[in-house]
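Annotated sample (chain length 407).
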Amino acid sequence: MCRPGAGGRNAAPICREDDTSVELEIGRGRKSRQAFGFDDVALVPGAVTLDPEQVDITCDLAGLHLELPVLASAMDAVVDVRSAGVLAELGGIGVLHLQGVQCRYEDPAPVLDRIASAPAEEAVAVIQEIYREPVKDELIRRRVAELREKAAKVAVSPTPAFAQHAAEVIGPGQVDLFVVQSTVTTARHLSSRYEPPDFRKLADMLQAPVFVGNCVSYEAALELMRAGADGVLVGVGPGAACTTRRVLGIGVPQVTAAVDCAAARDDYERESGKRVPIVLDGGMRVGGDIAKAFAAGADAVMIGSPLAAAAEAPGRGFHWGMATSDQGLPRGTRIRVGIAGTMREILLGPAHRDDGTLNLFGALRLSMSCCGARTLREMQQVEIIGAPALPTEGKAQQRAQGLGGAR
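Output written by the structure step:
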């Protein structure tokens, strides 16, 4: 399978000689390949198992070392200065949304209270009104300075159209990671309104790696890597508060998206000698989903709604999508996530629930030990099988009684 590469007809083609996808006929003259999400697959336990204490879940992302391979989503219900500091202490990294309420309002607390207290039927309109307040350069600089006081590693995120300006405001050496993120980002975006960002130039300006997202295909991921992305975020529409898949009809289930983009990473490493990590972004609800994300090829994961349910999160028990505030076509909604526990309990336990929503990375360790994977790289080689019966097989009583998170 070959397609033109970035740069048009004369660019080097993108080829996948090992693409053996099974195509299904969906109608006369139209075929489609099957794609898989978390509930469609299972991991096969290994012939060798390990003590969970021998499992290493640390990761290195473009020079950033993380004790926990997790990024908190750049969403206003998930990351503020306080929650980023807590996550940093636990070994992960929180990504602050530079176009969110933290950089629009001197004191975001009353604004967040208003979003949380809005009646369900008014929530989107309230959020749209709140986000009409302009982003302020001085608040960007202040929040970055506050993050540097609270967190060992500082990560921030603008949209592509705002990326150049944000980088100029922040300046060199002030952040450890710059995440340029939108619903769909490609290396060949055409616009008459703004110049698409130059990822290499941004990295030079900031003296920090630039991660880019989001995408879900081999071709898009490979082109972003060739265009200078230091990391690629994978996922379109899987988030709990996102309505993109319904509103726009686009997206690829996360397991298939991860496998395809991991193939691009591996091919690019063979081509260039540089490993560009992929971060699977969204759709993970329980520890088993996170284990499957790594088995599908992720180098790290980005999660939103599970962390929005942390006691330290700024969302007051609610979570809303990044595009909920869009004035013309909202692609997100506000959902109630409640308070599941502290951030430590959610990520590292101990768990006081039986549904897999707490101690997510303890679950990852145990899954890796059952699969005989000592490291995340080894977890990427674990056997994956199609198994749509996995969540429901033998679980009729749990479903009937609403126990164990059965769905």
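Annotation: The two ends are 37 Å apart (CA to CA).
Annotation: DSSP finds 15 helices and 18 strands in the chain.
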